Every structure is written in structure tokens, then in C-alpha cells.
Amino acid sequence: MAAALLMSNFQASFHNLLNRHDNLTYFVGDLNRSVLRITKGERFLTFFVAQFDLNTRLLTYVNAGHNPPILAMNEQLYYLDKGTTVLGAFDELPFIEQGTEKVDGEALILLFTDGLTELQNEAGDYVDENFGQKFVLANYHLSATEFNKKVMDALDLFKGRAGFQDDFTVLTCKVF
């Protein structure tokens, strides 16, 4: 229940602050202060936010302690890892680095929760980074819907009869 209330308050703060900022650094700083007011430092959350300019094709982002999303384009992977630490743990964030990537041609952005990195098969093996890299490179040309279906099929095959150990969310964004 506490997590649901935190996310409800966070979502309200997100929408309230979103239109006040055109700079992601200031936006994330204000979100941090909002989370800290709500949690009094007893809880924290990870967060990723990005803006994409259709004219310049520039992706600007801040990653606040989240698993780095993967940008796949031109047969290469880029980890969107610039940003800061988790939100709600500090009065002021110790640093905020805004990342940018020029999106050249067709691309796919894959965001995921730690349920993916904690997934084990029946033998107790974890999904490794090499599997993920190969999978994304081989499939980023698909539509987001097709990509997500193929991800779930591959993970179901990997885990076998083992269950998901944690909640698991994937968000796929396709850029044409």
C-alpha cells in the first residue's frame, strides 16, 4: 500500500512539475525534492525521463538510478546512463548530468525494471547482459509490439517452468 501511495503522489508531482520546466535537470531536481517531502527520506525511487526533438532528432534524458535503458540504432547499442542517483534519498541531488544522443535513422529504446535482471531459469542462472545485447541487436528493427512479444517469448523459453522472482515491466519506444 505504501508503494502505491508513493507512486500516486509521485505521478501527481510529475504532472504538476512537467509544464513548469523545459530543462530536464531542473525538472528532476524538483521531482527529487517532491519525493523527499513525501517520503521524508525513508523511501526512494528510480526514474528515467527523456525528451525527443523531432526536428533535430536529439534525444535528451536524465537517468535517476534506473537500469540504463538501451538505445539501439545503426547496428549499435548505447546505454542511456547519464543522470543522477535515486530520487528521495538526498535533500539536494549530489550531481545531475543530462545525457544526449543523436538518433540517426530507425531506432528502438528499451526500458526495463530490475525484474528482468533478476530473472532466473530452472537451473538458477540469470539472464546475462550478453543475451540481452544480442537479442536487442537482432530484433530492434521490429515494431514495438513485435519486439515486446518476442522478448516475452524469449524470456518464457529461458526461464522454463521457473516463475518471475520480481515484478517485471518493459517499455519499448520505436523511433522511425
How big is the Rg?
A: 17 Å
- Per DSSP E runs of 2 or more residues, the count of β-strands stands at 8
CATH class of the largest domain: Alpha Beta
Oligomeric state:
single chain
CATH superfamily of the largest domain: PPM-type phosphatase domain
- Per the CATH scheme, the topology name of the largest domain is Phosphatase 2c, domain 1
Sketch the major β-sheet.
Answer: 4 strands, mixed
Distance between the termini: 39 Å
Which outline best applies?
Answer: globular
Helical content class: 25-40%
Low-confidence stretches: none
* SSE class: alpha+beta
Q: Count helical runs.
A: 5
Strand content: 15-25%
Residue-averaged pLDDT, rounded?
91
Kindly give the count of domains: 2
Helix-strand pattern, N to C?
Answer: HHEEEEEEEHHHE
Task: Give the name of the CATH architecture of the largest domain.
Answer: 4-Layer Sandwich
Descriptive key words:
alpha+beta, four-stranded mixed sheet, four-stranded antiparallel sheet, 8 strands, single chain, 23% strand, 2 domains, 176 residues
Describe this entry's structure for a reader.
By secondary structure, this protein is an alpha+beta fold. The chain has two domains: 1-103, Phosphatase 2c, domain 1 (4-Layer Sandwich); 106-176. Helices cover 36% and strands 23% of the residues. The chain has five helices and eight strands; from the N terminus they run ααβββββββαααβ. The chain has helices at residues 2-18, 24-39, 114-117, 129-139, 144-159; strands at residues 47-53, 58-64, 70-73, 76-79, 83-84, 99-102, 107-112, 170-175. The protein is globular, with a radius of gyration of 17 Å. The protein starts with a helix and ends with a strand.
